[in-house]
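User: Predict the structure for this protein chain, please.
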Amino acid sequence: MQSKTFTLGRIRRADYDEKTQQLDLHWDSKTVFAYKQVPQEVFRRLCSAPNPTTYWEDRIAEEYPKGTPMGKGTDPSASDPAQRLRDLFGGEE
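Assistant: Here is the predicted structure, written as structure tokens:
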């Protein structure tokens, strides 16, 4: 995974997973927007843009499908309390 930290504008950090082509944008408001099927070239251009927020508005926001931020909701059993207990204490399916 690649990451880029920004010091100006509303975007604070961009995380990009080249395997899944997912881009996560961390905002100054502590929210995270995730986009799927983003080519690596788009991430590269975001990182080199003079104003990353403007680049996001023009080239990413409406162009790519939204997803779930990496690290959140990636484990299907996370929403199943019974499965979590089975995982913790063992047990039959």
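The beta strands are 2-5, 11-17, 22-27, 32-35, 66-67.
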